[in-house]
Amino acid sequence: MKKTAVVILNWNGVKLLEQFLPSVIHHSPEATIYVADNASTDTSVAYVKAHFPTVKIISNSRNFGFAGGYNEALKQVEEEIYALVNSDIEVTENWLQPILALFERELQTTIIQPKILDYKQKTHFEYAGAAGGYIDKYGFPYCRGRIFDTVEADKGQYDDITEIFWASGACMFIRKNIFRELNGFDSDFFAHQEEIDLCWRAFNKGYTAKYCGFSTVYHVGGATLNTGNPRKTFLNFRNSLWMMTKNLPKKQLFPTLFIRLSLDGIAGVRFFFQGKFKHTWAILKSHYYFYLFINKSLQKRNAIQSENYYRTRSIVYRYYLKNGRFFDK
Description:
Elements: E1 4-10, H1 14-26, E2 31-37, H2 44-51, E3 56-59, H3 65-74, E4 81-85, E5 89-91, H4 96-105, E6 109-118, E7 121-125, E8 133-135, E9 141-143, E10 146-147, E11 150-151, E12 161-164, E13 171-175, H5 176-181, H6 194-204, E14 208-219, H7 230-247, H8 253-273, H9 277-292, H10 294-299, H11 315-320
Parallel strand pairs: 1-2, 1-4, 2-3, 6-14
Antiparallel strand pairs: 4-13, 5-14, 6-7, 6-13, 8-9, 10-11, 12-14
């Protein structure tokens, strides 16, 4: 049995499978390829069966979203290394070898992300993950190669291997035993930020995540839910608050949450004056659900929370007030 499983989660994405699945199959001879289908109503499953009979299909009973969809599907996958790959990812030649070699060399490394470039502008990093992720004290995520909406060109500046805080769910590798020890993604998140929560829980248990810049993939991004969609705003803000409630150190929990809620309020006002009223409403709605389920989030807290989770105190301050538009600043 091959020890690596490339698992592509799909929901009504037959066009994406037609475009990108061939590259995954062609460049992944070391792996077993799975398509985990979230109860699609299009011809996705029939297409894969007809054109790629070597690909294994896992059929979920309904659309569980990103988090729950992978949780359900991976119960049936026994390879040692999971490569979780979005259906809008184009992989490159030898993309697996550097990742698998790093896993072999470093047994303490449990999560790895490759370099993620923009499929639509291949000279630049892609928003969702770029060259590996971090968060600031108040839970705002950012990446090497992408701070908020500023995306860097790939000039080889991140052709390295380094420790990161979170790996992008667009393309991330994780050891099966660690995924199962952590009980997978938090399915309540449905989609967005669940990979950061997973990596944070792994970090709190002493596990290491790394970025490997010698493996490259190209990501379309926004193929399921684009950045201008208020639904995405709602999920990002709500899930970030849930994630912080679960993972912040006890003595920092409520002071940090208070500041984050205040910053969310400022973002909501900013959206309002930009005429983006649906996004303001999405933030208000996210706060309602945060308060509604705060007890459930508190019950999910692990015994240990590390105080050294953030690299930068406030990425908002660095970006907007100190002109820190690029990671090296």
